[in-house]
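[audit] Reproducing an earlier prediction to check determinism. Same input, same settings, fresh worker. If the tokens differ from the archived copy the diff job will pick it up downstream; this log only records the rerun itself.
[audit] input (382 residues):
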Amino acid sequence: MLPYMSAVLAGILGTTIASAHAADSAPFLQGLKHQALLTSTVPDNGDQNPYAIVVAPASSGSIQKGDVLVDNFNNSQNLQGTGTTIMDYSPTTQKTSIFAEIPRQLSQCPGGVGLSTAMTMLQSGWVIVGSVPSNDGTTATKGQGCLIVLDSRGQVAEVFSNAEINGPWGNMAVIDHGGTASIFISNSGFGLGAPTENSPVVAKATVLRIDLNIPEGPEGPEGPESKPPVIIAQTVIADSLSEQADASVFLIGPTGLALGANDTLYVSDAINNRIVSIPQASTRTTSASSGHEITRNGLLQRPLALAMTPNGHLLATNGLNGQVVEIDPMTGQQLDSLWIDNDKAQAPPGSGDLFGIAMMPSGDGFYYVEDDMNTLMEATHP
């Protein structure tokens, strides 16, 4: 295994992998029967629609290692692309607080702020979150968006905005060395117009790798501090992926990103109901186009967020029902599925409720959100 993969083993954003893949290992979902409500994700300002989930890899500022960060995509009027808050749930104290409330109008971010599923926290304490903003809750007024860098007390420290960052949508995968890091994001904002009854599918979504340097800063009360991350390189490693404006869910595009063995990045292609892979994700200098298909259809029902289990399998949340699906990425076999939201108020049950997912540091289960109830949940073995 290459040295940089040690960062992936740290479990950032649930993209951990086992040191060796066991092709015949039992499905992770077997016996994962216990599901529990942890907290509401609605802050005092009424933001709704929880999207991203990040498990803190380190203690820094107001965040403790193992805390669960959840951001909101909608405001109190339930308009998509207008949420500005990140919540912090502590599994230790079982308390929830507001980590950050970002100004809705941020001059450095084209279009303003509407926090998406693109979020991560680095070992150095910096939190990076994507904005896919709207003025009316639809893609008719969608701005280009940006990546917002927050310090570990929730204050805006830097904003990344350039031509390759447009609608940073999918949950991030990360390789983190402390002083340097690489983040992977999908961008689904290119060429989208107002949603219609039959909005066209546009083959313009990308996966972008951004390589960062985290400069050393002055000595602080708790030891050396770092300066905000600086972009040292960025590379489009996949393109021509499908995206579509949608009145009910804002947009549909590649949402899940998870790093696996052999420097392979897995991406959920929601519109085409499949999972694709991108080889040499951390080192490639050219695009892999739309990637290599590893599995399609079957148990998948518009796959959204992805996470890698300790035994090297992928978990994908479904957007069109309340199931999570387990996949062996080496063979493409869909191994199992589990209802984690069977709310019959939707048809099929749980449709449109699931989004973010992140593995617990213990490896015994995962965190997920239920958008309809604005809650953070957990699924664990009894």
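[audit] rerun output stored. Observation attached for the diff report: Residues 1-24 have pLDDT under 50 and may be disordered.
[audit] end
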